[in-house]
Design goal:
This is F-box domain-containing protein. The structure is a single chain. The chain is α/β, with parallel strands linked by helices. It has one domain: Alpha-Beta Horseshoe (Leucine-rich repeat, LRR (right-handed beta-alpha superhelix)), CATH 3.80.10. It contains 8 helices and 17 strands. Strands 1, 2, 3, 4, 5, 6, 7, 10, 13, 15, 16 and 17 form a 12-stranded parallel sheet that branches. Helix 4 packs parallel to helix 5.
């Protein structure tokens, strides 16, 4: 990357904050390696405010990986607070206890950097990826214990068990993204400030979402995921997106969304002849119950695979006279 004779190294001429943003897309160990590119890059990695704890060397032992991470953390600048941590359990081999020990040490390091910058936490975004569904309780306790809940705004979890509601301490969280997680009926009880919620491929027997500040809700089921029942009550929700459901059980949502502006619903299973136990009347009732929860929307996109009845419903039946724009696909 260093400029050859006669060439202009325009990349190195960029301001530090732009170079830090570019480096933030790499794993932390790779960021350190950029120090050999040129004198300009020698200490640049020390001030990147993002930690991406991914495994870089697949054949390295757990000990050497932990040793590398510990060493680079000790060499980082003590004047730069950690604003984001992306911790991937899948990228390196170790027991769950060893991985949690690493996670806890990273959380403590981020807390120490915050304390060295005027006190209080500076961690705004946290992402955790697990190789299998493990309980989030211990990690939640570590996050709260290290005072990151004061400033943490965005939390992204992959393959976590949140059947038991996490401990209180996430009052400032405004965005939550859950992928392939197991959820309980009270999962969202301690996230009162949420404005953005995304659920993809999650499993729940009785999903209840109730948020006074919630503005956007997106629920996407993937192959093998299942939400058996769904109740959503959000007085400020403006955007609602739902895709799919498991056809092996009778599903009927309860929606209370008085401020809804836009809704997009793609249901894959409404077909009274699909052999999954639905009668034509039951499918019709389920459709109309769903519509009754969306009647406040100003625009509505509906896609029902293999279900012809919905195309025979009038806009009056669907919207009860409230929706101004309806698209049936």
């Amino acid at each position: 990357m260093a400029a050859a004779a006669g060439d202009v190294d325009r990349l190195s001429d960029l301001p530090d904050n732009i170079l830090h943003h570019i480096l933030s897309f790499l794993d932390t160990l790779s960021i350190v390696e950029t120090s050999i590119l040129a004198r300009r890059w020698r200490c640049l990695w020390k001030d990147v405010p993002i930690l991406n704890i991914w495994r870089k060397y697949r054949n390295s032992s757990t000990f050497s990986f932990k040793e590398h991470i510990s060493k680079l953390l000790s060499l980082r600048s003590h004047h730069v607070a950690v604003a984001e941590v992306n911790f991937d359990y899948c990228r390196w081999g170790a027991t769950l206890s060893e991985k949690f020990e690493m996670f806890d040490s990273v959380m403590k390091y981020a807390a120490s950097q915050s304390l060295g910058n005027g006190g209080g936490s500076h961690l705004h975004r946290l992402s955790i990826v697990s190789p299998s569904t493990i309980d989030f309780t211990d990690m939640a306790a570590s996050i709260v214990a290290n005072h990151h809940h004061d400033s943490l705004k965005t939390l992204k979890l992959t393959r976590m068990n949140l059947v038991l509601a996490p401990t209180s301490g996430f009052m400032s969280l405004t965005a939550l993204e859950l992928f392939d997680c197991c959820l309980g009926p009270n999962t969202f009880a301690n996230f009162p400030g949420l404005k953005y919620l995304k659920l993809q491929g999650c499993i729940s027997r009785n999903l209840k979402v109730s948020g006074v500040e919630l503005v956007h809700l997106e629920i996407r089921e993937a192959h093998g995921s299942s939400i058996w029942s769904m109740e959503v009550s959000a007085p400020k929700l403006r955007s609602f997106c739902f895709r799919g459901t498991d056809p092996r059980r009778k599903w009927s949502p309860v929606l209370n969304l008085p401020a809804l502006d836009h809704a997009s619903v793609h249901v894959l299973w409404f077909n009274s002849t699909n052999g999954f136990g639905y009668t034509k009347e039951e499918a019709d009732r389920a459709c109309l119950k769903l519509f009754s929860g969306l009647h406040n929307a100003e625009s509505l996109i509906l896609c029902f695979d293999n279900y012809n009845k919905v195309h025979n419903l009038s806009c009056q039946e669907i919207s009860n006279g409230q929706v101004t724009s309806v698209m049936l696909i």
